[in-house]
Here is the input.
Amino acid sequence: MPRLKIGALDDEKPVKVTIELPAAVDRDLKAYAEVIKRESGHSVADPTKLIGPMLKRFMATNRAFRRLRRQVPQNKAG
Here is the structure.
C-alpha cells in the first residue's frame, strides 16, 4: 500500500496566515484527512492544518528549491 507524504502533525507554535483555496483543493484536503483517519486511526479535526506539513514536505523534497535556497543568505531574525 502506498504511504502518505505526511503523517502526524508537528506541535510547533503556528504562524497565522489567511489564504483562499480553490474549492477542489479544499475537497482534496478533506479527503486527505479522511485517508489519514482510515489509515492511521488519527482524526484530523481541521483539514486546513494539513497545509503547513504539506508545504513543508514539498519544499523539503524540492531539489531545485533546496539548491537555490543555499545560495541566498538566510535572515536569522525572522
Q: What stands out?
A: Helices lie at 23-40, 51-61, 63-71. The mean pLDDT is 85. The chain is about 50% helix and 0% strand.
